[in-house]
Amino acid sequence: MSKTALVTGAASGLGYELAFLLIKDDYNLVLVDIDAPKLKEVKQFFNKTYKNTVTILVKDLSQPDVAQEIYNEVKQLPVIDVLVNNAGFGLFGTFANTDWKRESEMLHLHVLTTTHLTKLILPAMISRESGKILNISSLAAFQPGPMMSMYYASKSYILSFSEAIANELKGTGVTVTALCPGPTKTLFQQTVSSNCSENKISFNMACPTDVAQYGYNAMKRGKTVAIPGVFNKFLSTIPRFVTRNMATRIVRNIQEKNRA
Ligand SMILES: NC(=O)c1ccc[n+]([C@@H]2O[C@H](COP(=O)([O-])OP(=O)(O)OC[C@H]3O[C@@H](n4cnc5c(N)ncnc54)[C@H](OP(=O)(O)O)[C@@H]3O)[C@@H](O)[C@H]2O)c1
After folding, report:
1. φ and ψ at 179, to 5 degrees?
2. Distance in Å, CA 124 to ligand 1 centroid
3. If you measure from the C-alpha of residue 1 to the centroid of ligand 1, how many angstroms do you get, rounded to a whole number?
4. Is 23 helix (H, G, I), strand (E, B) or coil?
5. Which CATH superfamily groups domain 4-259?
6. One short Pfam family name for this protein (predicted)?
7. Which end of the chain is more exposed for a tag (fewer CB within 10 A), N or C?
């Protein structure tokens, strides 16, 4: 019997690629995104090729109680075997000048919705002794990020939360994976740069198909932390070799050069 996977932010980028891998692996899909037209296109595209059920939920995941709403809607479906907390966006600028409304939406999306959806869907996985959770963190999780302070801090939260509950869940049959991509060619990079001139990050830019495949394989193996790419793995270790202050300064230089 087909299993079911719920993917947030599935209308584009990594979420779309992960949904594609899941349906190819015979999962039925529950796809959640804020972008209704794109989500419908994705459903139509999948329906043309695959017989699996594709349910779409148009939701703004930055709003209070949205996780509970989603849970109430999917409760009637067969169990959720895979949960992918992927939706996210970035904001650039000094903390004193960035827009609080957008920032609080980002915190809600990255921190509260990710945590609440996990809280709601996890108990059934534990009682079935089977389930996979894939949380999309970032290379940004490994050190503070001046000019994108709340984005970096929220991605650190996702990494720390994922590692902690992965440990608690050992032996239950449920695994948690934090995927920590470096810069990846998706709409994300354009959106981060929307308030300034064009994004100049071009080196070390990964293809979303490869990043999703890497994260998917890691999730299937139950790996706790997955960093795609040798160079990114190296970058994630820098805070171990230089002072935290120095690592923070390096990030500021990179962000200012590339986005300011
Ligand atoms: N691309 C990178 O360089 C990179 C690196 C490290 C980590 N990541 C992480 O990877 C994840 C996926 O990003 P991506 O690169 O695939 O970017 P993307 O192409 O922009 O995809 C993100 C998807 O999430 C949706 N979304 C954003 N806010 C939402 C909300 N409030 N409610 C529901 N859906 C929402 C977006 O819809 P709209 O387009 O309509 O907003 C979009 O469809 C994010 O968590 C991001 O932080 C990305």
Report:
1. -90, 125
2. 27
3. 31
4. helix
5. NAD(P)-binding Rossmann-like Domain (3.40.50.720)
6. adh_short
7. N
* 14 close to ligand 1 (CB < 6 Angstrom): yes
User: By C-alpha distance, which of 208, 85, 106 is closest to 148?
Assistant: 106
- Ligand 1: which residue has its CA nearest to atom 20? 188
Give me the residue spans of the domains in the chain.
4-259
Contact 258, 196 (CB under 8 A): no
136 lines ligand 1 (CB under 6 A): yes
- Atom index in ligand 1 nearest the CA of residue 35 equals 40
145: Cβ below 6 Å to ligand 1?
no
With a 6 Å cutoff on the Cβ, whether 138 touches ligand 1 is yes
* 130-to-79, 126, 243, 256 alpha-carbon distances in Å: 11, 6, 41, 44
In order along its 260 residues, the chain shows pLDDT tens digits of 789 999 999 999 999 999 999 999 999 999 999 999 999 999 999 999 999 999 999 999 999 999 999 999 998 877 899 999 999 999 999 999 999 999 999 999 999 999 999 999 999 999 999 999 999 999 999 999 999 999 999 999 999 999 999 999 999 999 999 999 999 999 998 778 544 445 555 667 899 999 999 999 999 999 999 999 999 999 999 989 999 999 999 999 988 888 76
